Amino acid sequence: xxxxxxxxxxxxxxxxxxxxxxxxxxxxxxxxxxxxxxxxxxxxxxxxxxxxxxxxxxxxxxxxxxxxxxxxxxxx
Length: 76
Ligand SMILES: [Zn+2]
Prior knowledge:
Layout: E1 3-10, E2 17-27, H1 32-39, E3 45-47, E4 54-56, E5 62-64, H2 67-72
Parallel strand pairs: 2-5
Antiparallel strand pairs: 1-2, 3-4
This protein binds zinc ion.
């Protein structure tokens, strides 16, 4: 299950509130596009709409990858 929500994060440089999408859980199988985004480090990182400073969202990210579980327990 992939979970994300919008939160207002204040820019550390100018204090402007930016509405950003915060990811808390990513499931690699359900959301392969999210996995790709994670590998590209393009999530939980925003750019201030006022001063263009990069705002890193300091939030633990729970990353689920269920491939191992599937491999250990054959279907059927
Ligand atoms: Zn700013």
